[in-house]
Amino acid sequence: MSSYATLYEALGGAEAIRDLVSRFYPKVQAHPLLAPLFPEDIHPVMEKQILFLTQFLGGPSLYSDQYGHPMMRARHLPFEITPERAAAWLGCMSSALGEMSVPEPLRQLTIERLSGPAHHFVNTESDTTAN
After folding, report:
1. ∠15-24-121 over CA atoms, to 5°?
2. CATH number for the domain including 90?
């Protein structure tokens, strides 16, 4: 990433973010822990994710320009986010980055950057009854 100022630029800008989101959400929809959290019509969620990731990874402030401050933890409070779901979300994102042939160091850096928020959204303890 040394020649790029932001992860957004290093990943390839707007086109790459759109590609990432288009690869990511089918994985989310197929994941047994994540699918129940999302609506059947995933397209509005995808569009918001494009805006958010653009801004979060150092691109233009598209999300804030359209929706105001992200307040992502508050926006996720209605959903049961467990540590397992946070890990599954990050796994789907890592897999989508891998499909895009993002080099491993950049992929790892992107996942590290996304790990903070993913774990910050956790609002429900692990389901310890499933044995």
Report:
1. 110
2. 1.10.490.10
